[in-house]
């Protein structure tokens, strides 16, 4: 039996362990919005050489001159050392790792334009959370067609851009079809306040990230309509069952969505008005205008997720209801009534 002194020494030693690499690389970040800028900040804090491609000259100037991106991350001081540019060629030159942070619905076009300049030996980490509306494809499926020679990975988990840009701590999952590739990226991208876990379940991680946005819209709508925290919790829990079913039907593993890119991100996004999807849902539920709101990826993912469920016969009434709500085919009250009056059944 260890003495309590020995136990506390062992615990303290475990907490003092440092990450296993000091490797400093050139990281190219594509997309100068909130998430691209936050990821660039995170990589700069880890001491990497960071180049950021943004199409918006104002954002580029703001980052280079002021260490700010006021348009997308207002009031946040970014670390020094991010070299922003509108020239994708120079950003991508000699990059060891590429983080693609374009919105999901523009990933195909935006990455397609810069693809000829992507070094073939650099892994491409997809940081968008969504399913392509027009095709039902996951980001990895799209990008492996555009960049067939590159290792494709995905990064997902509970991580508001503003939190990450401020250097607040969180943990995410990095997935790649080859576990060794995911392991290496997790080591390279982990930083003082950014802990990366790894997995080879690319599909599970992508589905978790994409569908949590749809459920956040539903959770927000329930709150916006004044249905209360119990309704919100029931909706998210049953929605999580649907998310797991869909992930499995598409080839992902159920345990993956119980991790950071699934349960973790649901906890964050389905409860905080800091989430654009949740706050979009709140506005929808409250009957407010939806014009000019910031990007809410779930709005495009919901209809295609619903179509996938219907065509594959996957039982997902909440995701289908969110899609119908967004299309104005149902009101919140009708959606709730429909969900509550489905035939009763065993929970599992
Ligand atoms: N903001 C956040 O907290 C997080 C966002 N994400 C995901 O990251 C992705 C991007 O989101 P945000 O950066 O937040 O969106 P955002 O709206 O803040 O920025 C999007 C950026 O993409 C650029 N862009 C769009 N189309 C482009 C094109 N064709 N070529 C070049 N640039 C283009 C825009 O100019 C803008 O700079 C989304 O899928 C989102 O779900 C993931 C985790 C956290
Ligand atoms: O994915 C996110 C946090 O993990 C960001 O969520 P929103 O896009 O809803 O703001």
TrEMBL record:
Its EC number is 1.1.1.94. Sn-glycerol 3-phosphate binds at residues 129, 157, 159, 212, 265, 275-277. It is an enzyme of class 1 (oxidoreductase). It comes from the Bacteria. InterPro entries: 6-PGluconate_DH-like_C_sf (IPR008927), 6PGD_dom2 (IPR013328), G3P_DH_NAD-dep (IPR006168), G3P_DH_NAD-dep_C (IPR006109), G3P_DH_NAD-dep_N (IPR011128), NAD(P)-bd_dom_sf (IPR036291). Keywords: Cytoplasm, Lipid biosynthesis, Lipid metabolism, NAD, NADP, Nucleotide-binding, Oxidoreductase, Phospholipid biosynthesis, Phospholipid metabolism. Its main location: cytoplasm. GO terms for cellular component: cytosol. GO terms for molecular function: glycerol-3-phosphate dehydrogenase (NAD+) activity; glycerol-3-phosphate dehydrogenase (NADP+) activity; NAD binding. Residues 201-337 form the Glycerol-3-phosphate dehydrogenase NAD-dependent C-terminal domain. Pathway: Membrane lipid metabolism; glycerophospholipid metabolism. This is Glycerol-3-phosphate dehydrogenase [NAD(P)+]. It comes from Phyllobacterium leguminum.
């Amino acid at each position: 039996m260890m003495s309590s002194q020995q136990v506390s020494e062992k615990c303290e030693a475990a907490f003092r362990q440092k990450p296993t690499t000091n490797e400093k690389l050139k990281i190219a970040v594509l997309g100068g919005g909130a998430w691209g800028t936050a990821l660039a900040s995170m990589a700069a804090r880890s001491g990497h050489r960071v180049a950021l491609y943004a199409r918006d000259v104002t954002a580029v100037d703001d980052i280079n001159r002021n260490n700010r991106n006021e348009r997308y991350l207002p009031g946040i001081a970014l670390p020094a050392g991010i070299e922003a540019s509108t020239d994708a060629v120079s950003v991508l030159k000699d990059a060891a790792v590429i983080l693609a942070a374009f919105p999901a619905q523009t990933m195909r076009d935006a990455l397609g334009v810069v693809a000829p300049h992507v070094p073939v030996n650099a892994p491409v980490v997809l940081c968008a959370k969504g399913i392509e509306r027009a095709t039902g494809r996951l980001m990895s499926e799209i990008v492996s067609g555009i960049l067939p020679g590159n290792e494709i990975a995905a990064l997902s988990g509970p991580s508001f851009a503003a939190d990450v840009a401020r250097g607040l701590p969180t943990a995410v999952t990095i997935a790649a079809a080859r576990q060794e590739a995911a392991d290496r990226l997790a080591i390279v991208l982990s930083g003082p306040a950014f802990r990366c876990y790894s997995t080879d379940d690319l599909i599970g991680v992508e589905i978790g990230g994409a569908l949590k946005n749809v459920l956040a819209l539903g959770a927000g709508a329930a709150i916006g309509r004044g249905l209360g925290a119990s309704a919100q919790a029931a909706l998210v829990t049953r929605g999580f069952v649907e998310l797991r079913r869909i992930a499995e039907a598409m080839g992902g593993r159920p345990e993956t969505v119980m991790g950071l890119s699934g349960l973790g991100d649901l906890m964050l996004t389905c409860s905080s008005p800091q989430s654009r999807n949740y706050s979009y849902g709140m506005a929808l539920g409250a009957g407010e205008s939806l014009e000019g709101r910031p990007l809410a990826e779930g709005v495009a993912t919901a209809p295609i997720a619903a179509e996938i469920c219907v065509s594959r016969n996957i039982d997902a009434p909440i995701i289908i209801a969110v899609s119908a709500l967004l299309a104005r085919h149902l009101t919140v009250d009708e959606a709730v009534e429909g969900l509550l009056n489905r035939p009763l059944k065993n929970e599992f």
